[in-house]
Amino acid sequence: MKLYLFPLFFVLTLLFGCSDEAESSNEDVQTTPRVVQLTTVIPANSDHSYQFPATVQPVKTVELNFEVSGRLNFVDLKQGKMVKKGHLLATMDSTPFERKVRENKALHKQATLELERIKSLYGKKLAAKRDLDNAQTQFDITQIDLENSKQDLSYTKLVAPFDALISQRLLENDRYISAGTAVVRLQDVSRIRFELNVPERILSANISNKINSAKAIINGSINKTYDIEYIEHTTEPDPVTQTYKVLFEMQAPQDEHLTPGLRAYVEVNVTNLKHHGGVVVPINAVVAAADKSFYVWRFDETTHQVHQAPVDIAMASGNLVVIRSGIELGDQVVSAGVAQMSESMLVQPYVTE
């Protein structure tokens, strides 16, 4: 017997005692049917719904920075604005970078002419191999310098790497900044995420269950409900709240702009696969036997007699017991006065007027 059934066995033993005592009290021949209360066996409610407060979040948030140092010039950094991929956000004073490109072009041109001259002399055996190698090396160095300066010039423009919402401008305009300094924070809102914190006891109880449906409910001026899908959850709880972060997601709606940080509720319906297919009876219908097993008194509609039916208990919840096997959906069991029952006792179902 599993450990969590011991409390149930103890409670049932206190309530009803063992079956031997009940049987000994009914040794006399029965002449009048005993009136009993019957309960019809119903399916276990394996579906559970939970509702959690949630916060709207972007798919990702990134901070953009320049790869070079220089003086900052804003182009379009209006907070709260949606921009397309490739949209120019800010520039840096390009004058010194353009000057560096021109300088390296001139040096590279000079190195090219020098290499051609040395090659010509080397072909006539008027220059040493060492002179040719030096000219080639200088040509390669100036070519690399030119490519680097062109790349640095391209770094003076900051563009949106994806369709994004400008979340926050991090610097004031017209100031000198170092390479790597964050300038703007962008949010990818092509898909909307809902972040919620789930208590440990709920997550543990449903970790292996199937999610039937999940909906995000946004009240206020929007007042809409959206279907969402599960993405992931953390496996380490918050050390203070002992809750786990869970993420759901959906495609961004076309008719509404859901701003990150917006408050919402997420309603999740799950199926308990472990107890799926079981049946439920009142806890008062279950009797604890002397050998620590459990049974119920099943009513036979044909003979109006009751018979012991051993049952396998899955769990107890409140005043109900989930049973895996032993009885079937639609069976009728005695749910009051079980301590007075005995095998094949003649009974009469109690009918309310």
Automatic annotation (TrEMBL):
Keywords: Signal. Residues 1-22 form the signal peptide. Residues 279-337 form the Multidrug resistance protein MdtA-like C-terminal permuted SH3 domain. It comes from the Bacteria. Gene3D superfamilies: 2.40.30.170, 2.40.420.20, 2.40.50.100, Helix hairpin bin. It holds the Pfam family RND-MFP_C. InterPro entries: MdtA-like_C (IPR058627), RND_pump_MFP (IPR006143). GO terms for cellular component: efflux pump complex. SUPFAM superfamilies: HlyD-like secretion proteins. Coiled coil: none annotated. GO terms for molecular function: efflux transmembrane transporter activity. Belongs to the membrane fusion protein (MFP) (TC 8.A.1) family. This is Efflux RND transporter periplasmic adaptor subunit.
